[in-house]
Design a protein that fits this description.
The complex is a heterodimer of chains A (304) and B (410).
Chain A: H1 5-29, H2 32-38, H3 42-45, H4 55-73, E1 78-80, E2 90-95, H5 104-112, E3 125-130, E4 152-157, H6 166-170, E5 176-178, E6 184-186, H7 196-200, E7 206-208, E8 223-225, E9 237-239, H8 244-247, H9 254-258, E10 264-268, H10 275-282, E11 284-286, E12 298-302
Parallel strand pairs in A: 1-8, 2-12
Antiparallel strand pairs in A: 2-10, 3-4, 5-6, 7-9, 11-12
Chain B: H1 2-22, H2 27-53, H3 68-82, H4 87-92, H5 102-123, H6 146-174, H7 184-206, H8 219-245, H9 252-283, H10 289-295, H11 305-323, H12 326-329, H13 331-349, H14 351-354, H15 373-401
Helix pairs in contact in B: 2-15, 3-5, 3-7, 3-8, 5-6, 5-15, 6-7, 7-8, 8-9, 8-13, 9-11, 11-13
Classes of the chains: A alpha+beta (304), B mainly alpha (410).
């Protein structure tokens, strides 16, 4: 280098100025992160995985969620974390002969589970299908006419609560797993939002919170579960949980209660006297995409 | 004792010299670095907005839940793996003319891995929870999740290449002869590792039974074939640029070797594409729907059709040029072929691979996807970051290998 000592120092000075300018520019570019971090407490950031919470930790976590909800929405909610009931494995069956495609189930899910109002989200999609085929390529969810149409049948699809769930295997951080009663759940405080589970699910059962869901305060369902219908944060995955905050207390899922035709049958697969076991033993039953080996706990059946 | 004392002095000196080389240059260099930095800034800002306001700023949906980011990630893994195509002739076949330039293949791999990690990073909905992935601290679902394998192999590949490049350059800097024990095992490992990063990335998609478009045993071999197209094509362009911009004398030998590789890999890549097309369309049935969408459009939806045919034309023309004499002898033809096939693979391995996996959806709904402005900004920003890493790496490599930077001037 032929720089004089003076030249070198000037060059160093220019470099330092450039570096400072660059750093300042990056800080400015990343400024939106500051407002995002403001809305987050250190408890949010350091939340523990659901399975690692002891009784005391769980109590604190439930209280934190209740207080957070109060602060953000002004609503007093009650958040529970019921454990699976021993000796119970939940199953769901749906009678395709009497479903009329009214979508009351999807609506009930929307309200029960505090879904984002703007996107009209629901865990249930109801397909109107051509009679004579169960090819989804010939079905549509976008129908707007009186139901049922004579040449159609209707097929609601929601999480199939697979025994061999692809979404659970692919999760890189174990944020989703299968509970002892067969329900596949998501820990909203642990999910990193990579959406690998959404790609893996063959039933389009998973939903991502592309932004923080919004529910008007007076419409919030205050009866909430840690692993089910509490208000979800932005950027995490969610899915149907068989209304575990109800079903683990002996109640029925909201979608079943809303069904006007009685097409839905919910119960304990381990109880030989349950209605669902009677359906499985006596009706023509099938599961969706059986060839994939996912072993659903959700069954479809016909009457005639 | 004296040797370790030497390192304690010469290694920091080495780093200081590299830092100086990395930040020193002519007007052209500063203009280039400022240009890349400006794009990276635009990307960083777009990403910050995406984190704050949610991924609703992208055009991804519950139907097409991966888009431009994961497409570029997949292509980037191929580029990183392709860097190793310099290493194989250099070390496995002992081609001495390749020994110097092989370092640039490894520098490319480092830059490409930085790009890959960037694209996975921006695709995550909760970057604040990334620590949940750290084994021991979070809950790392290994070995079940293919994504955890990808995290391991990508970071491993980054470390391997950093070690090899750093070790060889440092020894050239000090004028010492590198000890084979300290780099040959790593070089051999990096060959296997390069194949593993792309295999694991292919398995990430191929293992999903619900996505027939990806659920093919040919996916991993196809990934490798296209990686060995895009990697060498980029390195040819890089070597030509270095010949033009630097005084490091790169002979015709390495470029000729790379073109020989490209002659085979471009054709193998097209052959595998043809096999897949045959199986898809001759068999027919609902599993063909995604391929139908990609190549010809489905039920009036055909956003990807022009992209895919552009890719095929680019790849066929490039393969044709490589097979002629002009492809080797005339630099204009060589550059055109490399640029065409690089773009062709970027489309095929990016949008052409990821998007049809989601269209039609698993329940046969058709929701199309085109990236949002935020996605394009973030994407450009990450490639600019990769460009910065590559420029700095190549500049340091040239300075040391050409003998400009030595511990003892001689």
């Amino acid at each position: 280098m032929s720089d004089s000592a003076d030249g070198v120092s000037r060059r160093t000075l220019l470099k330092a100025a450039g570096a400072t300018l660059g750093a300042a520019a990056f800080a400015q570019a990343l400024a939106p992160l500051a407002s995002w971090a403001e809305g987050m407490s250190s408890e949010d950031f350091l939340a523990t995985h659901y399975k690692e919470l002891d009784a005391e930790g769980l109590k604190t976590a439930l209280k934190r969620i209740e207080e957070d909800t109060k602060k953000k929405t002004g609503v007093d909610v009650h958040v529970t974390a019921d454990a699976p009931i021993p000796g119970v494995k939940f199953g769901y069956a749906l009678n395709l002969s009497i479903c009329i495609g009214c979508r009351k189930c999807a609506e009930a899910c929307h309200e029960e589970n505090n879904h984002d109002r703007k996107t009209n989200n629901s865990y249930i999609r109801v397909f109107e299908m051509d009679k004579g085929s169960i090819d989804f390529a010939k079905g549509t969810v976008d129908y707007a006419h009186p139901v049922p149409q004579p040449d159609k049948f209707y097929m609601p699809v929601q999480c199939q609560q697979c025994d061999n769930a692809p979404c659970v295997s692919v999760c890189p951080v174990e944020a989703t797993w299968k509970e002892a009663d067969g329900i596949v759940v998501v820990d909203y405080d642990w999910c990193i939002g990579c959406r690998y589970c959404e790609a893996a699910c063959p039933y389009h059962a998973r939903r991502f919170n592309w932004q923080a869901p919004e529910v008007p305060a007076k419409e919030i369902n205050p009866d909430q579960g840690y692993l089910s219908n509490r208000l979800r944060p932005q950027g995490v995955m969610e899915k149907c949980h068989f209304c575990l905050h109800r079903t683990r207390k002996g109640k029925l899922p909201a979608c079943l209660e809303a069904c006007p035709t009685g097409a839905r049958v919910f119960g304990n697969l381990l109880d030989p006297d349950s209605e669902i076991r009677w359906v499985l033993a006596n009706k023509r039953v099938f599961v969706l995409k059986e060839e994939l080996g996912t072993k659903p706990s959700f069954f479809y059946f016909f009457d005639e | 004792m004296s040797s370790s004392a030497n390192h304690a002095v010469s290694y920091p000196r080495f780093l200081v010299r590299l830092l100086s080389v990395a930040t020193d240059g002519g007007l052209q260099f500063y203009a280039w670095m400022t240009f890349l930095t400006a794009i990276a800034l635009v990307g960083a800002n777009a990403w910050a907005h995406q984190v704050a306001d949610g991924m609703v700023l992208t055009h991804m949906t519950d139907h097409v839940s991966w888009g431009l980011y994961i497409a570029n990630f997949t292509f980037g893994v191929g580029l990183a793996a392709g860097g190793v195509m310099m290493v194989i002739p250099a070390y496995l076949y002992d081609d001495h003319a390749m020994h110097d330039v092989v370092i640039f293949g490894e520098i490319l791999a480092i830059a490409a891995i930085v790009v890959c990690i960037g694209f996975v990073g921006v695709d995550i909905g909760r970057p604040d929870r990334i620590w949940h992935m750290i084994p021991g601290v979070g809950r790392f679902n290994w070995p079940m999740s293919m994504l955890t394998w990808d995290v391991l192999v990508l970071n491993g590949y980054l470390v391997l290449n950093l070690h090899i490049v750093g070790y060889l350059l440092y020894h050239r800097f000090t004028g010492r002869k590198p000890n084979k024990r300290w780099y040959m095992p790593f070089v051999m490992a990096s060959i296997v590792w390069a194949i593993s990063i792309h295999t694991v990335t292919a398995f990430l998609y191929a293992g999903l039974g619900g996505r027939p478009f990806w659920n093919s045993a040919l996916l991993a071999p196809r990934f490798l074939a296209s990686a060995f197209v895009s990697g060498p094509a980029f390195i040819v362009l890089l070597l030509l640029a270095m010949r033009w911009l630097s005084d490091l004398k790169i002979g015709a030998g390495p470029i000729r070797t790379l073109v020989s590789i490209l002659r085979v890999t471009t054709v193998v890549n097209l052959f595998m594409l043809a096999s897949e097309v045959f199986v898809e369309f001759y068999t027919g049935g609902s599993h063909t729907a995604a391929a139908q969408y990609l190549f010809f459009g489905l039920e009036g939806h055909n956003d990807l059709v022009p992209w895919m045919w552009t890719s095929i034309v680019f790849n066929v023309v490039a393969a044709g040029i490589f097979l002629t004499r002009k492809g080797i002898e005339d630099n204009r033809f060589l550059v055109a072929a490399c640029v065409l096939t690089f773009m062709g693979v970027w489309i095929e391995k990016g949008m052409g691979l990821i998007i049809p996996g989601f269209i039609p959806s698993t329940l046969h709904e058709i929701v199309e996807y085109a990236p949002s402005l935020v996605e394009w900004k973030v994407t450009a920003g990450i490639w600019a970051l990769g460009g910065l890493v590559l420029t700095v790496g190549v500049k340091c490599g040239v300075a040391v290998l050409s003998g400009h930077e030595r511990l003892v001037k001689g």
